[in-house]
Design a protein that fits this description.
Largest sheet: 5 strands, parallel
Strand content: 25-35%
Distance between the termini: 49 Å
Helix content: 10-25%
Low-confidence stretches: none
Shape: globular
Mean pLDDT: 96
Length: 404
């Protein structure tokens, strides 16, 4: 029987193992991960976990007993060091050599490092794992000051959580606006104002030149004092194993629409992949999100078990900050204009990115109807009347139902 070895026991790897059983795979499944915990959800780390609203049991994808009950050999705290495609084996740090018939790589991503003096200080923090989150939680509270280097989603969520715990927070962003690489100017301005209204200091166009005892040194000479420093300046695909094994890599491991790599016996899923996105003309992207991990887990499990592939999905993402629920569907590929619908000042609005007369992306703030309709229209490739889209007197159901 086909033996499946999964390297990486995060959201993608854990889901792939469960789906293989659900799809009828009867052969051995080995699920191996570096962390000591069973597969768990990472998004709550910057929110519910930091605020003490969730424990490990709440974060686990499935109860630990699930793996034994479904004959999945879960191995935690183990590190794969080499893949040998010709022999179809994987070597681990303890010297164990594990054979496979099908290999799924789900090694995720690692935090990008800054190359400035002090960047290797042991007191600097990042937020990728449960251990990271627990360490950061211990540094927050009344009378504490957190400096967040990087104004991306994780950094902003951590700042919001710090404020909820009574700590001061300052966000330091190199670009001229937060979320500059991933969001519209309208969304950036909204979140900047919202964080400032909650007492977060937001510094933009601020270059970090060094990490020092007691804080962060900026290019203009200022020392931003802090009790704790969190660095969140993006992530890199953890594709070292794949590259060393000779798999084709480019901004991650290159895979096809079934999540298969350049080696027909190896699949790759989740943050580590550079994958085609059918909803956006098949152009390749590296997507860092739970929905992407789940979709690719379905693709790999279906391919390995001989099932029909799952239908292509529109990429989507979310972020929770304070009372704000941000939902994004699609990617702004080729967009040539934006339509804002709703009340930006009131915190209930959506920004639609249009390419011609088609929606390619929607950013929805406390606007679930706009998110759901926008996602549906992206999937269908529907034509849209921009004037009706902007008019809140016309329901999103009516907008989405219009012919075209």
């Amino acid at each position: 029987m086909t033996k499946v070895l999964i390297i990486g026991a995060g959201h993608a790897g854990g889901t792939a193992a469960a789906l293989l059983r659900q799809y009828g795979h009867e052969g051995p499944i080995v699920l191996a991960g570096e962390e000591p915990a069973a597969p768990y959800q990472r998004p709550p780390l910057s929110k519910a976990w930091l605020k003490g609203e969730a424990d490990l049991e709440a974060l686990l994808l499935r109860p630990e007993a699930f793996y034994g009950e479904h004959d999945i050999d879960l191995r935690t705290g183990v590190t794969a060091t080499a893949i040998h495609p010709s022999a179809r084996t994987v070597t681990f740090a303890d010297g164990t050599v594990e054979p496979y018939d099908a290999l799924i790589l789900a090694t995720g991503s690692t935090a990008r490092k800054l190359t400035v003096p002090g960047a290797d200080r042991p007191d600097l923090m990042e937020l990728r794992t449960l251990t990271d989150a627990e360490r950061l939680k211990g540094a927050l509270g009344p009378g504490k000051r957190l400096a967040v280097v990087g104004g991306g989603y994780v950094g902003l969520e951590a700042a919001a959580s710090a404020r909820a715990l009574g700590a001061e927070a300052v966000v330091i962003e190199r670009m001229d606006r937060v979320l500059a690489r991933v969001a519209s100017e309208t969304l950036s301005a909204f979140f900047t104002a919202h964080h400032r209204a909650h007492g977060v200091e937001v510094l933009t166009a601020a270059e970090v030149v060094a990490f020092e005892e007691g804080g962060v040194r900026l290019g203009d000479g200022r020392l931003i004092q802090a009790d704790a420093v969190l660095v969140g300046v993006g992530a890199l695909a953890s594709d070292g194993l794949a590259r060393a094994a000779g798999l084709v890599c480019d901004n991650g491991v290159v895979v096809d629409e079934t999540a298969r790599t350049s080696d027909p016996a190896i699949w790759a899923i989740g943050d580590m992949t550079f994958r085609p996105v059918p909803a956006h003309g098949g152009r390749r992207h590296r997507l860092e999100s739970v929905p992407n991990a789940l979709e690719q887990a379905k693709q790999a499990a279906a391919a390995i078990t001989g099932r029909a592939p799952p239908p292509p999905e529109v990429p989507w993402f979310w972020s929770d900050q304070y009372e704000i629920k941000l939902q994004i569907a699609g990617l702004p590929d080729g967009a040539d204009r934006q339509v804002v619908r709703g009340d930006v000042d009131g915190g209930t609005f959506a920004v639609f990115h249009l390419a011609g007369d088609r929606i390619v992306c929607v950013e929805a703030v406390n606007a679930p109807a706009e998110f759901m309709a926008g996602r549906l229209m992206i999937s269908r490739g529907s034509l849209v009347d921009a004037a009706r889209l902007a008019d809140r007197a016309v329901s999103m159901k009516e907008v989405a139902a219009a012919p075209g």
